[in-house]
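Re: Re: ligand-bound prediction request (bumping)

Still looking for help on this. To restate: I need the protein modeled with beta-D-glucopyranose bound, output as structure tokens. Inputs repeated here so nobody has to scroll up.
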Amino acid sequence: MDIEALIGSMTAEEKIRLLAGASFWSTNAIERLGIPSIVLTDGPHGLRLSASDETGDILSNTKPATAFPIEAAMAATWNEELIGEAGRAMAEECQHYGVGILLGPGVNGKRSPLGGRNFEYYSEDPYLSGRMGAAFVKGVQSGGVGTSVKHFVANEQETNRMVVSTEADERTLRELYLLPFEMIVKEAKPWTIMCSYNKLNGTQMANNDEYLNGILKNEWGFEGLVMSDWGAVGDKVASVRYGLDLEMPGPGARDAEVLEAYRNGLVTDEQLDDHVRRVLGVIRQAIEARRDVPALETEKHHELARKVAEEAIVLLKNDGGLLPLRKRANVAVLGRFAEMPRFQGGGSSHMNPAKLDIPLDALSAFANTVYGAGYTDESIDEELIEEAKELAKGKDAVIVFVGTTEKIESEGYDRADLNLPASHLRLIEAAAGVNPNVVVVNHSGSAIDVGPFESLARAIVHAWLPGQAGGSAIANVLFGETNPSGKLTETFPLALEHNPSYLSFPGHIRKVHYNEGIFVGYRYYDAKKLDVRYPFGYGLSYSRFDYSRLELSAADLTNGELLRVKFDVTNRGDRAGKEIAQVYVRDVLSSVAKPEKELKGFAKVELAPGETKTVEIELDERAFAHYCEHLGRFAVESGDFAILVGASSRDIRLSAQVAFRSEDDIREPLTSDHSLKEWLEDERYSARTKQAFAGMNLNDDSPIFPILLGMPLQKLEIMMPNLKAFVSELSEG
Ligand code: BGC
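Reply:
Sorry for the wait, this slipped through. Here it is.
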């Protein structure tokens, strides 16, 4: 496809037609020029292809495809290679169905644990989201299918998501919410980005020149196309003028408006051609990479989905080594989710699994089981509770399945609290009342309040929404076929009220203020020295891992240099296992507010019993930088940085220090708005300031001196006209 030749032969009407979809899930074709249409569809954990596009039947009646664990679970594997493989498998399924673009991954932040779509996002940590997202994008695109990284940007809630304006400062946006997009765009070159519904600081994302053109396309060099979230375009002409390439879904109803704007000179040829070039570029990529995949590899992909689910499961508690359970033990399995698996979330990611493992069946392959439903919905059913108690009595262990329901956790609304349904809690209580060996298996896509049952359960397994093979993955972990190796990618707080966004989430219908700034998740709990239920990066194994011999490649560092962090991890357990080693950086002394520590590197290491491996992680300049608004870029402040190596954000095993001698001067220049005190104390200006005031005969014992010190220079000048000359000399300097 010769794109420039096509652009040269297209009419304005044809160009405009290409800038909106043809239907719910496809782009426009232009037969006259041989431009084909491509199909684009959800979603982040597997393919959800509507069987009937014409009717706009978007949620039900979808084609069978492999349902992988939801994104939060994929991130909990911390295994980029595995996520890449899952992406590649999804691409194969897209090829089979003729889909050109898979609408994912979602990389929004987890500002509040209540975010209704948190299950669809990777982590509260933007660096981890960026790494997992890049791995996923590379995996899918290696199979010749495009991705759409969504939702760009600052869309951290469901409440009012289509109308609210996120109000956030630039440093917060750069360091937290833009960072995953930046990392993915630069490293993985996604074919497309999907803009979000919300406004950002007052401007609709679908026509946000500063973000779409300024940051995404110009600054980061994004070459693909920006599509709208479904129905996110308000002012179509503005979206064409300010950076949106493709309005979805189709058919476009406002082509005439755009044509008129074009004829009036409001939309330029250059703008139209740039959009068309991007849309055609993606169509060409999809067409050239299209392959004939005659059959779905259902079994192979199911195995892969199981592997991801196994690596995602986080063992939260295991008192006295209750797990793994003994094979052939007598076990009561309680809770309806054991029979009707809770394996995915609600909304646009909801798909039709090609196959489905039932946890109860999988457990029964290892043990002698009896089963009781325990609940049918959220309300307590005393009859089922009584039955459960009888079943639980005298058994070697009781496995209780609980979790959020789709009524609680879905796209479209946020959660009201972190509670499990009353009927699920009652079931745990009932089981613990008659049997001390309770294992709770929790299915939720995000943090829950474990408080009400933590002391009742000897073991707690956070199984997420684990996809279609979750049932057998859980059984493999519980019976020790697999050594658990997932770690939390979000903090489980002791109380919802401890969350930094508690008082401002979800805000008002017009605005939500991200008041907590960069202090989200562990960045906040650490800074406030708050205890948490389970920290970021936490997860148990059936093995124990030791850390030793931390070595840094340099004692000091400057811009453009890499620091190599080397250390050993040893498996002290008697079974093979995987450990996720994490590297955090702490700025020992900073002139701006900074988190206690921030994740800057990690590695998942597989170790045989007794084996030691050396892990090497590279940190580049960015690992030490923060965003300086006045410089308009990331920069490093000179000083000491601690390199912390740990098994979680609250379990640091090794540390060392490096001195960064930065070429960046991150200090803001002083202005006449700054106070005399600041002028006197700033080493860049103090000598000159003292000199300027030397002749003034100002006595620093005078009772008015503190007042003068606190005044901005410009006010000093007004109050004391005889200072005018000094003030202007200083502020000019
Ligand atoms: C969601 C997107 C999704 C789209 C298409 C929207 O409501 O926010 O994530 O890709 O629908 O289903």
